[in-house]
């Protein structure tokens, strides 16, 4: 076996497994629980195990881990004892992309959607790129694909600094808003690491940034001062101090119709219309960033704009889960205050004047503690908040840090620790015309079926 992936069922790891397998490598791995991702990998002929056991690990395999894998994991322990090569997921992904024109999409928010947009649009434009996206791209039913062209599009993760393992030809940075401060410690360190990422761009390559975001604008300016090529895009804010790169795409005349956002984009003396099959101002900005990447890769502006219309979303990004009795259920991955606010602004448009009810599962104790007040402010855009216990993921519980740090600041919020009880409660409250959102980066997505069943609908 060439590669053994611990946690192979995770969104990022399963993509790496699929890409390595598509390149002809012998791949296997394990995960703590069975899942649809494991079923998909099995269908490809990849050997997977449920449960972690040292006996599963071939002695000749390179072992791939993510930051979530603890040193006490028995499979990692045996690999260390044997002296086997241990790679981070990003290193394995870089191996899968070796020799290709690497496009890395980074940012605290929007990177899954933006990389999915690029995968869909470049495919529609006839380029057939390889891609690795941390979510299922609608229409492809996968987050990974080994294409025939020289282009490889990948979502680049900043949470553990692993995006520093890449050397992209083009880097798209959607925003540089501080997150993961348990790892970085400060805004300054967070932004400095993004600059290090930009400096990994190959000579002659391009950095594309959203200048509507203060952190991304500072990144673009700093990289330009170092002699780098920088293109920027923006226009959906009223910031008079907007910074512009060497070439700048202006987004204007935005129409935020439900599920069909559109806008005019002017770039390098040309003008085109962006008409999307997804809603939200944030998606217009994501699409403009993707448009500029396509132009850099040689796709004519008008053709790239038309191709972006083919994008129909990614899994868990304002994903429609079902309708029943005049009620709508949507699932969203938002787990940072800015993402929550963007999703709720979109929900207010999509609901058509109906109420917006949110079932939220905070992700990480550190993030909940750091951003509790910001979360509470974002949830003011909802009509009702139901909040469950924190999904700790890689973190251990922290004394005094609970979801009530958020709910206590939101008038009328319901704190129900058990997510099944919370799902049943929000389903019972929903009435005709309401839009209900299950929200968070953890296991809350599984509660969609509970809500739909309570409404008497099938998934």
Q: Mind telling me the C-alpha Rg? A: 22 Å
Query: Strands of the biggest beta sheet: in what spatial order?
Result: 8-7-9-6-10-11-12-13-14-15
Q: How is the quaternary structure best described?
A: single chain
The major sheet is characterized as: 10 strands, mixed
Give the N-to-C terminal Cα separation.
38 Å
Report on this model:
- This protein is α/β, with parallel strands linked by helices.
- The chain folds into three domains: 3-88, NAD(P)-binding Rossmann-like Domain (Rossmann fold), CATH 3.40.50.720; 97-308, UDP-N-acetylmuramoyl-L-alanine:D-glutamate ligase (3-Layer(aba) Sandwich); 319-454, Protein-Tyrosine Phosphatase, Chain A (Alpha-Beta Complex).
- It is built from 15 helices and 21 strands.
- The strands form three sheets. Strands 8-7-9-6-10-11-12-13-14-15 form a ten-stranded mixed sheet, with helices on both faces. A six-stranded mixed sheet has the order 16-17-21-18-19-20, with helices on both faces.
- Helix 1 runs parallel beside helix 4 (89-96), helix 5 packs across helix 10 and helix 14 (419-429) runs parallel beside helix 15.
- The longest helix is centred in the middle third of the chain and has 16 residues, at 281-296.
- It is globular, with a radius of gyration of 22 Å.
- The model has no long low-confidence stretch (mean pLDDT 93).
């Amino acid at each position: 076996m060439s590669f053994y992936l611990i946690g192979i069922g995770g969104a990022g790891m399963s993509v790496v497994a699929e890409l390595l397998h598509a390149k002809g490598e012998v791949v296997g791995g394990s995960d703590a629980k069975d899942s649809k991702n494991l079923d998909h990998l099995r269908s490809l002929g990849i050997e997977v195990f449920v449960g972690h056991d040292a006996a599963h690990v071939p002695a000749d395999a390179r072992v791939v881990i993510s930051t979530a894998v603890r040193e006490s994991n028995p499979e990692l322990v045996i690999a260390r004892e044997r002296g086997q090569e241990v790679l981070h997921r990003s290193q394995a992904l870089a191996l899968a992309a070796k020799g290709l024109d690497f496009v890395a999409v980074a940012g605290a928010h929007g990177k899954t959607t933006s990389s999915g947009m690029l995968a869909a649009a470049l495919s529609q434009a006839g380029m057939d790129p390889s891609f690795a996206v941390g979510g299922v791209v609608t229409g492809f039913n996968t987050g990974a694909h080994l294409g025939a062209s020289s282009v490889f599009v990948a979502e680049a993760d900043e949470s553990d600094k692993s995006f520093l393992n890449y050397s992209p030809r083009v880097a798209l940075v959607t925003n540089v808003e501080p997150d993961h401060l348990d790892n970085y410690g400060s805004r300054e360190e967070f932004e400095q690491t993004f600059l290090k990422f930009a400096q990994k761009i190959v000579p002659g390559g391009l950095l594309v940034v959203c200048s509507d975001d203060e952190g991304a604008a500072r990144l673009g300016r700093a990289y330009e001062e170092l002699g780098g090529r920088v293109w920027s895009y923006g226009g959906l804010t009223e910031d008079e101090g907007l910074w512009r790169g060497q070439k700048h795409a202006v987004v204007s005349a935005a129409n935020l119709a439900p599920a069909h956002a559109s806008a005019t984009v002017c770039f390098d003396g040309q003008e085109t219309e962006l008409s999307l099959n997804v809603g939200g101002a944030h998606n217009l900005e994501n699409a403009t960033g993707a448009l500029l990447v396509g132009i850099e890769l040689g796709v004519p502006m008008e053709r790239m704009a038309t191709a972006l219309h083919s994008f129909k979303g990614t899994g868990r990004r304002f994903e429609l889960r079902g309708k029943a009795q005049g009620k709508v259920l949507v699932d969203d991955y938002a787990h940072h205050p800015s993402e929550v606010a963007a999703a709720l602004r979109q929900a207010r448009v999509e609901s058509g004047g109906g109420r917006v009810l949110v079932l939220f599962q905070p992700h990480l104790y550190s993030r909940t503690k750091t951003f509790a007040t910001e979360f509470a402010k974002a949830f003011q855009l909802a009509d009702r908040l139901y909040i469950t216990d924190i999904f700790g993921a890689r973190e251990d519980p922290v004394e005094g840090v609970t979801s009530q740090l958020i709910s206590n600041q939101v008038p009328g919020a319901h704190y129900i620790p058990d997510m099944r009880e919370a799902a049943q409660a929000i389903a019972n409250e929903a009435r005709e015309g309401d839009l209900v959102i299950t929200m968070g980066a953890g296991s809350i997505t599984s509660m969609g079926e509970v809500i739909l069943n309570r409404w008497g609908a099938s998934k």
